[in-house]
Amino acid sequence: MANNNKSIYSALAANLLIALTKFIAGAYTNSSSMISEGIHSTVDTTNQLLLLYGLKRSKKAADQFHPFGYGKELYFWSFVVSILIFGLGGALSIYQGIAHIKEPEVMKDPFWNYIVLFLSLIFEGTSLFIAVKEFNKTRNGMGWWDAIIKSKDPSSFLVVFEDGAAVAGLIVVMILMGMSHWLQIPELDGLASVIVGLLLVFVSFILARESRSLLMGEGIAPETREKIAQLAEKDVAVLKTKNILSTYQSPEEVILMLILDFEDHLDTEEITVAIHRIRESIKKEFPLVRFVIIQPE
């Protein structure tokens, strides 16, 4: 999780550096797309702060009200981030763009806009490079989409999506803003804002889908289930693994429940000893499994 913090901090620094300059440049040159980019960077800055808050809350120790801990706080705040990207980022950018298309304003000299966009591209590109590098460390040879679907840590891929959308948005704005000024078609500047908004809406839907799935409770991978079943059945007291139920409480914490069929001749004390033995062997083999509940069939 420390690696993911590195990508979040780099993204936070990049967005803080450029959000204010985008707003100033956009207001000075009457550029709708630059204002949208400023909104985008402000939302991204807020998102990184919320992710860091979620990470901190998720490490809070268990108590009597939350006996399994606060791990799902990360999933909740990741879902909130996806909503913010949709509402504050996507919807506001689309609104700003449509308003500028309906009542276009002639852009002033966009020189400073290009300077801001160029610097923003450097900062966002650097942040994206760091985020991709850190995410690659978690992929373990899987394809990108498979790694995102199977990831239990939304902070690992959320920053990649945010920075990727930021870089794509900057390129769109640079192209359409230049065409708007060169061809004297101010509506193109508004169109750039709409495209940026649609891009953010698309990203928000993907992130909301993954965060919702994690918040609802995703289980361990089928191959891990099979390994746990085999490990349990190696014990001399077990006849067969009837069922395995699991859920990720956080990216680093799994709750596991096994329903096992024990040998008929075992008494209660022998079954209790076997349960303790199996529980310890599973925890030793799979460090992420923090809670193991074993139910005799």
TrEMBL record:
<keyword id="KW-0812">Transmembrane</keyword>
<dbReference type="InterPro" id="IPR027469">
    <property type="entry name" value="Cation_efflux_TMD_sf"/>
</dbReference>
<feature type="transmembrane region" description="Helical">
    <location>
        <begin position="7"/>
        <end position="28"/>
    </location>
</feature>
<keyword id="KW-0813">Transport</keyword>
<dbReference type="InterPro" id="IPR036837">
    <property type="entry name" value="Cation_efflux_CTD_sf"/>
</dbReference>
<feature type="transmembrane region" description="Helical">
    <location>
        <begin position="190"/>
        <end position="208"/>
    </location>
</feature>
<dbReference type="GO" id="GO:0016020">
    <property type="term" value="C:membrane"/>
</dbReference>
<dbReference type="InterPro" id="IPR040177">
    <property type="entry name" value="SLC30A9"/>
</dbReference>
<feature type="transmembrane region" description="Helical">
    <location>
        <begin position="157"/>
        <end position="178"/>
    </location>
</feature>
<feature type="transmembrane region" description="Helical">
    <location>
        <begin position="111"/>
        <end position="132"/>
    </location>
</feature>
<feature type="transmembrane region" description="Helical">
    <location>
        <begin position="74"/>
        <end position="99"/>
    </location>
</feature>
<protein>
    <submittedName>
        <fullName>Cation diffusion facilitator family transporter</fullName>
    </submittedName>
</protein>
<dbReference type="InterPro" id="IPR058533">
    <property type="entry name" value="Cation_efflux_TM"/>
</dbReference>
<feature type="domain" description="Cation efflux protein transmembrane">
    <location>
        <begin position="10"/>
        <end position="216"/>
    </location>
</feature>
<keyword id="KW-0472">Membrane</keyword>
<dbReference type="InterPro" id="IPR002524">
    <property type="entry name" value="Cation_efflux"/>
</dbReference>
<dbReference type="GO" id="GO:0008324">
    <property type="term" value="F:monoatomic cation transmembrane transporter activity"/>
</dbReference>
<keyword id="KW-1133">Transmembrane helix</keyword>
<dbReference type="GO" id="GO:0006829">
    <property type="term" value="P:zinc ion transport"/>
</dbReference>
<dbReference type="Pfam" id="PF01545">
    <property type="entry name" value="Cation_efflux"/>
</dbReference>
